[in-house]
Specification:
Length: 206
């Protein structure tokens, strides 16, 4: 059986992913590195596989030992509005994820999968997409981390604890988007969190 670790377990994709991992018989343990204690109602854990660990993400390197698992899933991410500044946004969406990839390499986990974004491009004039693209380049060029993969979702569909205007609109207009976005535009369709989580699991090295 395999062991997994998830960073960003309380977000839309992370929460969905953890619940799927806890139901997957291939995993004997699912470690979640979190900022604060998890609500007992957030996850269904009938087999007691969940291992939440409260940490300080500004000192992520101090928790290197937790990365000695088979599969690392990184769902960390924020928004410019929530972060409050470009610097704070970059700290979460680039620095934390980059450090997580480095620790995965150091502990020789089998694979590292993280959430990027459709349109990620290090040369983009859009700050959000530029940071995502710079992160992809940094991780994919990292030596001795051969099994790293990024998923690139568009707007996410699912039940959030917080309201995000664009994603709220996408939820209500999803049928229209699905019918209009075909061919090259298909990748920009709003996507359900469960599909993103399923894709992340399929990219892991077994």
């Amino acid at each position: 059986m395999k062991s997994a670790m998830v960073l960003g377990a309380t977000g839309l994709v992370g929460r969905t992913l953890v619940n799927m991992l806890l139901q997957d018989r291939r995993y004997s343990e699912v470690t979640c590195l979190v900022r604060k204690p998890l609500s007992s109602q957030m996850f269904k854990d009938p087999h007691n596989r969940l291992k939440p660990v409260v940490i300080d993400f500004d000192h992520l390197q101090d928790y290197q030992g937790y990365f000695s698992v088979d599969h690392v899933y990184c769902c960390l991410g924020t928004t410019l509005k929530k972060a409050g500044s470009k610097q704070a946004f970059r700290r979460v969406d680039f620095e934390y994820v980059h450090v997580a990839a480095q620790l995965t390499r150091a502990q020789r986990a089998n694979s590292f999968v993280w959430v990027s974004s459709v349109g990620a491009d290090a040369k983009s004039s859009n700050f959000y997409l530029r940071v995502k693209g710079e992160l992809e380049n940094a991780i994919m060029r990292m030596p001795q981390l051969p099994h790293a993969s990024a998923v690139r979702p568009s707007l996410l569909l699912g039940n959030r604890d917080e309201s995000r205007t664009l994603e709220d609109i996408a939820q209500k207009t999803a049928p229209i988007w699905q019918s209009l976005m075909k061919g090259p535009l298909k990748k920009y369709r709003p996507v359900h969190a469960v599909d993103v989580a399923r894709n992340m699991m399929s990219l892991q090295r077994w």
